[in-house]
From TrEMBL:
<protein>
    <submittedName>
        <fullName>Gliding motility-associated C-terminal domain-containing protein</fullName>
    </submittedName>
</protein>
<dbReference type="InterPro" id="IPR026341">
    <property type="entry name" value="T9SS_type_B"/>
</dbReference>
<dbReference type="Pfam" id="PF13585">
    <property type="entry name" value="CHU_C"/>
</dbReference>
<feature type="signal peptide">
    <location>
        <begin position="1"/>
        <end position="30"/>
    </location>
</feature>
<dbReference type="InterPro" id="IPR013783">
    <property type="entry name" value="Ig-like_fold"/>
</dbReference>
<keyword id="KW-0732">Signal</keyword>
Length: 499
């Protein structure tokens, strides 16, 4: 009775089925190991044969399958095969109404009964393959049928690389018989080699069938087994803290370091369900700056460098505990840009009107008025306080030439050689980055042109004095303003030449 073989066969079939997205019937992961990426419970209620190609056993929709046959049932009939089996009224999960399990009557000779390729695993990660098995044979004394040697399920679990290279094989201890039905968990850890992420999983029946070697399997689980990883707040082991919003708070790796020499990925969440990466956080510590108002959850993943591209996948990385940061609201604001004090004129700073109710404030001179008049260079700040949470903003005030973009060209000049206003001078307080100045006569002809700001018109054209009268001019120039930004201007006007 090949219960052992088929049960194991389905076991791996289910695992690989889930690994390769095949159609399987699964229920709550609570029936499997925590963190399982495969969890086969065989569902509940009526269930037919397994998909073709997953096992070489014969499906038989009967309470008592024969040697080399299997069925999926929610209970085992104890009267089968001459009252040789236990009566099993429910599957491995207590209270799982009509929950199914996989019952197999082993074939006669030991053989490999399942083989399947698993793709897309994480290299260098340890995986655990496990299942729950129940020996349904209740005959406790050997006899003629079994040649006076009790035949119990013996399952070999084997994992190979795709080219057949052995990764690991474990022959599990025989699942012994008992006076009452007893579920036993079998498991095998193995490591995916660092040069491949595809494996072939095989189940081999090492026991003889015929009289005995009959079993049921349930809750097949396949999960990564990562080293423990913990994170902590400074100077406390608490998992939750409350601090003021817009302050700094550093999180760090705790006593459990996870993988050695890892890559890191900090994550945050508003609901402890949907997680997003924290930009620029690939270190063992992370400083929240600033802390956000409200509740925010933080956790850390780390992985071996070979899995850095897949660090967001749970099967490729260790996952830490979750820390909760409660940000108490403050009263944030913005005083604006730094101040330019022009020509000695003061500038008035205002307390923002949109501060939350109950907010107090104080200026850098310790005054508490809603305005602060700034007339001298220096640093000026405003600090708000909302229920003990402070926020401040600072501006710098500097004396500046606020006319760097302006030029002044006189309305008249008198080139009469008396050393007073003898030339038409373009007045500018800074330096030009480009410059072109032209003067035109009444017919629009250019009578003076200069690209050098220090070269001025002396009221002549071709070394001859120009007549008294009005002359048009244009200037095309570029300058650097107070923010060191280049600005370009084109201006025009008239000047009166008098003698």
């Amino acid at each position: 009775m090949l219960v052992c073989q088929c049960k194991s066969a389905l076991l791996y079939w289910i695992i690989l089925l889930a690994l390769l997205p095949l159609a399987v019937h699964t229920t709550s992961l609570a029936q499997c190991a925590p963190g399982a990426i495969i969890c086969e419970t065989f569902g509940a209620g009526p269930r037919g044969a397994l998909p073709s190609g997953q096992t070489n056993f014969m499906y038989r929709a009967a309470a008592c399958p024969n040697d080399g046959e299997y069925n999926i049932v929610d209970a085992v009939d104890g009267s089968c095969h001459g009252d040789a089996w236990h009566t099993v009224t429910e599957d491995h999960t207590p209270g799982d109404v009509k929950g199914n399990m996989f019952i197999v009557n082993a074939s006669f000779q030991p053989s490999e009964f399942f083989s399947q390729k698993a793709e897309g695993l994480c290299p260098g990660v340890t995986y655990e393959f496990s299942m729950w098995v129940l020996n349904i044979n209740k005959v406790l004394q050997p006899g003629i049928c079994d040649e006076y040697i009790l035949r119990n399920p013996i399952i070999a679990m084997r994992v190979e690389q795709a080219d057949g290279t052995l990764i690991r094989e474990v022959v599990q201890p025989a699942v012994t018989r008992s006076a009452n039905p007893v579920w036993v968990q079998l498991s095998m850890p193995f490591v995916i080699q660092t040069n491949a992420n595809d494996v072939v999983v095989k189940l081999i029946n090492k026991g003889l069938g015929g009289c005995g070697n009959d079993l049921v399997i349930d809750d097949i689980s396949f999960r990564p087994v990562h080293p423990s990883l913990s994170i902590q707040f400074p100077n406390t082991s608490a998992s939750e803290t409350t601090v003021c919003a817009d302050t700094r708070l550093t999180l760090s790796v705790g006593a459990a370091a996870g993988y050695p020499n890892p890559v890191y990925a900090w994550q945050q969440s508003a609901d402890n369900v949907n997680w997003t990466p924290v930009p620029g956080s690939g270190q063992a510590t992370y400083t929240i700056n600033p802390v956000r108002a409200g509740r925010t959850y933080y956790r850390l993943r780390n992985a071996q460098p070979i899995n850095s591209a897949a660090i967001g996948r749970s099967q490729c990385s260790a996952e830490s505990n979750v820390l909760i940061v409660n940000g108490r609201p403050d009263a944030p604001f913005n005083l604006g840009d730094d101040l330019a004090l022009c020509d000695g004129r003061p500038v008035v700073l205002q307390v923002p009107n949109e501060l939350p109710a109950g907010t107090s404030f104080v200026w850098s001179d310790q005054s508490k008025n809603r305005q602060l008049t700034v007339s001298t260079p220096g640093s000026y700040w405003l600090e708000t306080n909302l229920d003990g949470c402070t926020y401040s903003d600072t501006v710098q005030a500097e004396l500046e030439n606020c006319h760097l973009e302006d030029v002044y060209i006189p309305d008249a000049f008198s080139p009469n050689s008396d050393a007073v206003n003898d030339k038409l001078v373009v007045i500018h307080s800074g330096d030009f980055t480009s410059y072109s100045f032209r003067v035109y006569d009444r017919w629009g002809s250019v009578i003076f042109s200069s690209r050098q700001a220090e070269v001025h018109w002396d009221g002549t054209f071709r070394n001859q004095p120009c007549p008294v009268g009005a002359y048009a001019w244009t200037i095309d120039y570029s300058v650097l303003n107070a923010k060191n930004e280049e600005r370009h201007f084109v201006r025009s006007g008239q000047v009166m030449l008098v003698r």
